Give the backbone structure.
Amino acid sequence: MKTLLFLAAVFVFLSSCEQVVFTDSQGILVRRKWTFIVYMAADNDLESAAIADLNEMEAVRFSAAPVSILALVDRHPGYDMTNGNWSDTRLFEIKTDPNGLNSTIVSTRLDCPELGLSNEVETELNTADPLVLTRLIDFAQRSYPAENYALFVWGHGTGWRSGPSMEATQAPCKAVAFDDTHGQYMPLPSFGRAIADKGLSLIGFDTCYAAVLELAYQIRNDAELFVGSEGEILSNGWDYTALFSDFLGKPNLTVNDLGDSIQEMFASQYASLNNATISQVRLPEIEDLFAKFDAFAGTLALAITSEPARGAVLDQMLHNVEGYHFTSFPSDLYIDIFDFSKKISGILSDITPDSVSQTEILTAANNLEGALIRAVPSSWAKNGTTQKLGIHVIPLQGIAVPASSHELAYVRGSMAIDKSSFVENSQHWVPNAIPQNDSLLDKLFYWTY
């Protein structure tokens, strides 16, 4: 009778776990709390960094931890010759390397029917194709069911992402998942569709220029927490040994625990790098933040009625507000939203002499800052500032030298196809095909006074 009761209890346990139970290396049944999906688009000049980060994951002692880590690695033929110099696309289940951190891959290569991958056949995938990402997530959730799923997007990143312009002469450049072999990239709307309704708990971007409102708005319904950097990061990205070691040492392994581990690891790793930032963004708060930001932009736009007022706001954006851009040009300019709000609140008399308009701007700024505090409850920056989240302004031709126009994919009502949700829905920030009086970027760059 005791045996039957025990077997019945085991059956109930397994059923209640909805198959999220697996056997660890010690033969013990463990409830899998997390499956990590690391999407390593390294078919470019980051190939060596991808191998190094894969080795960092293998240096983690997690054999008894209730987690599984899967890494899809797409290599390039020309930047790294280690580990047999394979240059196709391979999926690994990360295993602990008993020799610690080194340059040799010891993880288990997996078959993945969803992607047509076999551990005995070389297969080249286009990681810029959103179907590859979608099918990888599907495979992970089917084969490694867990209570929580985290997606780490690894590789190059250029800030707001949008679809290609209909102008053949305009080179598309904003994307994630750059794939040199196929000469393609994954635009923001495609990325959003790839991860929609997948039940992800956390999305982390180990890329440059990820913590921007345009990206957060695109994925606002697709996870609880989003983690990324407002500006540039080093080519070797995150320290995965430190990240996973810290996270797995926490007792509850919650979503917030993971966000804190990423932030704490990053702060330690990038403590000496100027302009380094990392942000934890609560995606359920982004809809409200978007509304407050757009309202602030519209209120400010309507208050700008003269060339001096336009010059005062533009001078703040180009010279005084905390900004981020690549050191080579042309380069897109991003500014920190919280700092922008503060700086504008400090020059109200330069914008308008009307006290009512000044009060309206200040009220909108306060509302925006409150929304930022709710949406970005935790962040770290080398300069000590908080609530780090950026927004695209305009491409630059040189330091503080704006381009003559925005890319069409950032212009509402333009002929660009597949524009991001932010561009489609913003009423008062993005420029318009026909300039509008209540659009801030129209008033700054396309209005005649």
Summary: Residues 149 and 200 are 5 Å apart (CA to CA).
